[in-house]
Predict the structure.
Amino acid sequence: MVTDLFRNIKVACIVIILTFFSRASSQNTTFCDLRFINHLLRTGYFEEALFLLDSSDCSSFQINDSVNYLRGWSYFSLNMPVSSSESLLKIGPASSLYLKSHFYAAFNYAQTGDIIKAIDVLEKIEVNTCDQISLKNFEIAGMQLQQGNLSAFVEWFGKNTGNQPEISESAINLMNISTEIKSHKSKSPFLAGLFSGIIPGSGKLYAGKKGEAIAAFISTVGIGLVTWENYRKRGINNFNTIVFGTIFATSYMANIYGSAFSVTVIENEYKQNVKNTVLFNLHIPIDTFFSKWDLCF
Amino acid sequence: MTLFSVNGIYASDYFSHALKIYYEGRFFEASIEFERAIYYETDSTRIELCRYYKSLCYKGLGKYDKALEELVNVDVEPMNDSLFLDFQYERVLCSYLLKDLNQALNNIDRIYMRFKDTSKILEVIPLNILCLNACREWDNAQILWNFYINNSRLNDSVKNNFKQEVKSLYSKKNLPRFHFAGKAETLSSFLPGSGQIYNGAVLEGSFNAIINLTFLYYTFSQFYSKYYFTGYFIGLRLFNKFYAGGIRRAKSLTEEKNENGVKAFNLENISLMSRFINTKSSENP
């Protein structure tokens, strides 16, 4: 009798355990599997990770910080900085992912050129250790430099202790960029246009485009000579003179406009280049600083 | 050990789930689920199977490079014959679709080296024919066609009919003509527009010739009338632009023409292959 009872209890236990395992197994196929999503991110399957995170199972998931972190990281890897920041900023200070997420959220805003928002995010970050304070000040300094605000850059840069190995090399680079910005002389589109008005192509030479300058000079002067030749031999009212004259006038005016435009393009390229270099030097320290913060799911 | 077996149960569930999604045609989701099965699976054979299906998902999505990437990371030699053939077939197909013909032919050779039994290699022959056509190895392709027909279980009269069709398909007048890019360029250098005409673009070639001749005439007439600047800056420079452009166009047209010719010829081959396979399956259900 007692043996039967024990046997029944044993069978019941086995049934309960098997039911638990089968439920666990079936739940895992539909439930938000953060460990696997993290694996997808590490192996470069960003779209796949985002797909799983956006599935309804993950949206209703309890561990919101982890979900938001992984979602933010997926967007970051897919080069969607605004969406990335939105997700990363949802992570609260109590989370171990807080610091990394907020630093990256600020960096994302800097990438989009929204420096005010980026600095605002950085200023609100609650930092405790010297290293963290230093990193925060360094990032703000870099963003001020990206904005072209040199005095603010110097001020924030001065708040750095400068001892962190993660920062030191990038700090030297930012310092060099600031020196370069100070010595950079902006070119004037007006002057470029004026030069091209006097000698066709010289505005492009001023803009630094030697090849284009030679081409513009030859073509404009060539058409000018053709017009002059037709004018001298056929007279002002001749059809050929009028056609070539019109072509010459158009080419001459277009060359003036082109020179002014070239200078604007070159200045924009210079600014974009500075922005990219600053961003690169802001990314390296946060990447190195948080690389040791390996996350477990 | 317990953990190992529980993981095994999970992985097996994931694989079945992935397979279900795959057969529903949801390739992107299936590729994720196969990756999940790979992640949790511990048995190497099952991992290889997951990779195989994952590559099929990518192929379904049109991402042939990713499909091939999944397949090349697997050592196929220790596999059983059936799995080896499946893997190699997909490798050949993806390489062919990515226009990497050398890789496709190398993979075909590996199949031939493994199997002595002709019945096993019949499946890969149509692909081999397409690859040989793309390499313009017409004779070898035709030999392979005949081998393919001979090894079918069709009756002799049907086989002969198909052989006849293959013969006419590979007849000299039906084969895509190979146009030499160098020849087209040379022709266009001597007589503008003739490179295009050599490639069959008669209208385009004539138009190019007329434009070039017009500018050449204009240049000479201006020089003759002592309008040297007009002759040089308008006539000669424009002639020069159209002349150089015409030569470049002749070259690109040749490459385009050669590629399209092979593509059209392979489409004819595919149509014949479909008919052959249909006949085979209707006669030997």
